[in-house]
Write a structure and sequence with these properties.
Helix 5 crosses helix 6 and helix 7 packs across helix 9. This protein is 43% helix and 18% strand. The protein has three domains: 53 residues, Arc Repressor Mutant, subunit A; 127 residues, no CATH class; 93 residues, VSR Endonuclease (Endonuclease, Chain A, 3-Layer(aba) Sandwich). With 300 residues, it is of the alpha+beta class.
Length: 300
């Protein structure tokens, strides 16, 4: 029932304020807004129909959050944004903007929304992001593994690590619960470093310098001890981290760098860090060090 003295517009504004302007018919009826009041506002355009029983308050173009939340609301209680749309909202998948993709308990057919059914969704795979019910980052990685090519999947996993501290064991927990997930094998190869990859211009430039000097090529972006490292030569016992300001300007990243160094020394590796300037501006000292570190062992 609508509180005494509060207008329909005030009630609409209250409900919409915390949900990116999205309201549902059930919410409005529960707040004491009558069927007639809803119909009148739909006809006048103050309530804009997004999906059956889901409305947007006002005339402004919908935000991405409003678009995705409306799709989730249209799929019923317990529905979650998932797949590419979830990865994009997390910021781990780049443009173009994916259409809404939603996982729900029951089969749904909604124009403009890619839906999938999961009768027994594990609540450990659900969270909230900017007010939108969404699959967790590890579950999102499992869901999109099959639809991304290997390079895209590598970059998405890297972004998940950088932005959300998502680790291979966290993703493995979801894979154990969902052993038949399409793309599971590919995702595991990426997570545990069984794929030779380079992620950034800095890394590609570093590998090019090695090639020009005819130095051995390392394994790249592999898990060594507990953490992923940029480059490692197992047979030479050498680990190299390539320092990018983009990924190293938080306290967490700074602490992870120190842990990588300590783990490298603990497993007996020589450890070096190189920057953009070392690779692209003056690589002489870097290459001198690497020639010595990667030189074949002398007999005797």
């Amino acid at each position: 029932m609508r509180p005494a003295g509060r207008t329909v517009e005030q009630e609409l504004a209250r409900i919409a304020a915390g949900s990116h302007g999205i309201v549902t018919r059930a919410e409005l009826l529960g707040a004491g807004v009558s069927e007639g009041a809803i119909k009148r506002r739909v006809s006048k355009g103050t309530l804009l129909t997004e999906y059956k029983g889901v409305y947007r308050v006002g005339h402004r173009a919908p935000s991405l959050e409003a678009r995705y939340l409306a799709a989730v609301r249209a799929c019923g209680d317990g529905a979650l944004l998932c797949g590419r749309a979830a990865a994009y909202l997390y910021g781990i998948l780049k443009r173009p903007v994916p259409p809404p993709e939603v996982v729900a308990h029951t089969e749904r057919r909604i124009e403009g929304v890619k839906t999938r059914r999961c009768r027994h969704m594990d609540r450990r795979d659900a969270t909230m992001l900017r007010g939108i019910p969404i699959t967790t980052v590890p579950r999102t990685l499992v869901d999109i593994a099959a639809v991304l090519d290997i390079d895209e999947l590598i970059r998405v996993c890297h972004e998940a690590d950088v932005r959300y501290r998502t680790t291979p064991p966290q993703v493995e927990v979801v894979l154990v619960r969902r052993p038949r997930s399409p793309g599971a094998g590919k995702l595991r190869r990426v997570l545990w470093g069984d794929v030779q990859v380079s992620l950034s211009k800095l890394e590609r430039g570093f590998l090019e310098r090695l090639g020009e000097e005819k130095l051995p090529v390392p394994e790249t972006n592999i898990v060594a001890t507990e953490r992923r490292v940029d480059c490692r030569w197992r047979e030479h016992g050498v680990t190299v981290e390539l320092i990018s300001f983009r990924y190293r300007h938080t306290r967490y990243a700074w602490e992870q760098d120190h842990l990588r160094a300590r783990e490298a020394y603990a497993r007996g590796d020589a450890f070096r860090e190189y920057t953009w300037a070392d690779v692209f501006e003056d690589s002489r000292l870097m290459l001198t060090e690497l020639r010595e570190l990667l030189a074949p062992a002398r007999p005797g």
